[in-house]
Amino acid sequence: MANRQVCGIIGKHIRSFSTTTTQASANALPIQLHGIEGRYAHAIYSAALKQKSLEAVDKDFQAILTVFKQEKGLNDLLRNPLLTKEQRQNAVNELATKRNANKVTVNTLSLLAENGRLGRLEGVAKAFGTLMSAHRGEVQAKVTTAHQLSPAELKELQSTLQAFVKKGHTLQLVTKVDASLIGGMVVELGDRYVDLSLSSKLKTFTNIVKETL
Predict the structure, then answer these.
(1) SUPFAM superfamilies, per this entry (predicted)?
(2) Which helix (H) or strand (E) element contains residue 142?
(3) pTM surpassing 0.70?
(4) What pLDDT score does 24 carry?
(5) Does domain 35-133 bear CATH number 1.10.520.20?
(6) Is domain 4-16+138-212 in CATH 3.30.1330, yes or no?
(7) Distance between CA atoms of 121 and 63, rounded to whole angstroms?
(8) In the chain, domain spans
């Protein structure tokens, strides 16, 4: 549970956190992302920044994410290796036409289709959203607990995490419940991760015991 003791432990772990969400300049990214989706998101951000169309492109990709939520089988369809180049391009054209998308967005969709990576579109859209959040000075904190937090616990947790966010930046707290944690919590703040769950501690203890046998 997110009591005062747990919040104190969080504070101890997060003191080394670096909220690297600085306002982007023409030659810098607000944060560094990894993986294929991250590389595409970097390229989109740089292109949109040069075209002064960051907000328009962000709206495009938010709309694309909405389509993925509404069309549950879309991701599987786009990952289908049997899709022809023409079918991929048709899928891109449909997405772009529905949105009347920005040129940067259209070019990105075409590039993904050309490279056979439309199956990564949802991940690319999410990665770009992460960049835009950092661009606006928003720091997302994802906290997973074994039990639902009370309003008082949420308030204390928010206050604890806010202390590690740079002045002028906004903390966005997202919580979810995972009973498999047994107790404690898992905290993701920016690009940092701290596992304070009881299940993790039990796993570590079990591994230590196994090594001594």
Answers:
(1) N-terminal domain of the delta subunit of the F1F0-ATP synthase
(2) strand 138-145
(3) no
(4) 36
(5) yes
(6) yes
(7) 12
(8) 4-16+138-212, 35-133
